[in-house]
Write a structure and sequence with these properties.
Shape: elongated
Order of helices and strands: EEHEHHHHHHHHHHHHEEHEH
Strand content: 5-15%
Helix content: 40-55%
């Protein structure tokens, strides 16, 4: 049975620190018969030197091990004490592997992908903000327990940055209110009905997170949007056909209702039946209209009421300024403007946009 030391490639010899670095110390044995006639003093001197070298190497090894343990402990304490700081490797693309191979063992999980992809910088881009918020909302509704402890910590760090951005910019508060509402409801169900065992970490941490969510909701409910003083042209100064054209660019009915409360002219344009008909045709299929057909007293279709009725039973069409891309040739997730080292002849034909739900489905095995 071979002897296995700390270095599995060698029989466990001693290493000595010198000016040129660490060198391996080996014991040499002379087989010549002439050296047996050496004096006793030289033999004792050699044994003394060997003993000193053994003691020094043993001491250096112990010191090295102690320093390594201390460094690991400091890193762990620094990571645990600074929960608001991210220590994850933010990458531009990741390889989604679903099985073990000879070169790669294991598989990529949802938490690993969430930690490695740079979602913290994505929320600063107005094109990707809604995409990240929708992904966080889907994770809160169904995938929160599947995240690791590090991924859950990263989840709340990104959520905190989103809330701060909304409070500072005063934009998209309704999206964050819905996200916090779903997250708070999901945590209450997990703690009361399922049990605390499904949540990673101490129960006091989750109680503190619940209090933080309630505090964020209170701040968003009390958010007062300041009126910007601008001496230039406003929306009301535009011609009537241009205001109507802007309303047709909206994809959310609540945004149209909110804009219609600004002026009486915008209110008149927001009640246009043709506008709501186009919105229903954009989000829903004609077969769904027959199931939830709503008529007015005059026998006409109430498209505005149909829109808000249909969105309760049918999912709306998702629309994002920018989304993650998935390369079918390389099985790589990446942001569109960063790219990835693709080996295909035509990389653009191999990439497809990934919706937030599709992103989660990629890691279901």
């Amino acid at each position: 049975m071979p002897f296995l030391g700390q270095d599995w490639r060698s029989p466990g010899g001693y290493w000595v620190k010198s000016e040129d670095g660490w060198k391996r110390f080996e014991f040499y044995r002379d087989d010549d018969d002439d050296e047996e006639e050496e004096s006793e003093s030289s033999s004792n001197r050699r044994q003394l030197e060997i003993g000193q070298l053994q003691e020094e190497s043993q001491e250096n090894r112990i010191i090295g091990e102690d320093c390594e343990v201390i460094v690991k402990k400091r890193k762990k304490d620094h990571f645990n004490n600074n929960t608001k700081t991210q220590y994850f490797c933010q990458e531009k693309w990741i390889y989604v592997h679903k099985g073990s191979t000879r070169e790669r063992h294991g598989y990529c999980t949802l938490g690993e992908a969430f930690n490695r992809l740079d979602f913290s910088s994505a929320i600063q881009d107005i094109r990707r903000f809604n995409y990240v918020v929708k992904l966080l909302q889907l994770i809160a509704n169904s995938q929160l327990t599947s995240l690791s402890g590090a991924a859950q910590k990263n989840y709340f760090n990104i959520l905190e940055k989103i809330v701060r951005k909304v409070l500072e910019d005063q934009q998209n508060p309704r999206l964050i209110k819905n996200l916090l509402q779903d997250l708070g409801s999901a945590l209450c169900i997990l703690i009361r009905e399922v049990g605390r065992c499904v949540l990673v970490g101490n129960v006091n941490i989750w109680v503190c997170r619940m209090e933080t969510i309630l505090n964020w909701q209170h701040q968003l409910n009390n958010l007062q949007i300041t009126r910007q003083m601008n001496n230039g042209a406003t929306l009301s100064d535009l011609p009537l056909h241009m205001q109507n054209s802007i309303l047709y660019r909206f994809s959310d009915g609540l945004d149209i209702v909110s804009l219609g409360q600004v002026t009486s002219t915008l209110h008149m344009l927001s009640e246009d039946r043709h506008l709501w008909k186009k919105l229903c045709q954009y989000h829903f299929a004609e077969t769904q209209f027959c199931r939830h057909l709503i008529l007015t007293e005059n026998g006409c279709v109430d498209w505005k009421l149909m829109y808000f009725t249909l969105q309760k039973y049918c999912p709306k069409k998702e629309q994002y300024g920018d989304a993650l891309q998935f390369c079918r040739h390389c099985s790589i997730l990446f942001w569109k403007d960063t790219g990835h080292p693709c080996t295909a002849n035509n990389p653009e034909s191999c990439s497809t946009p990934v919706s937030p739900q599709h992103f989660i489905d990629l890691f279901k095995f």
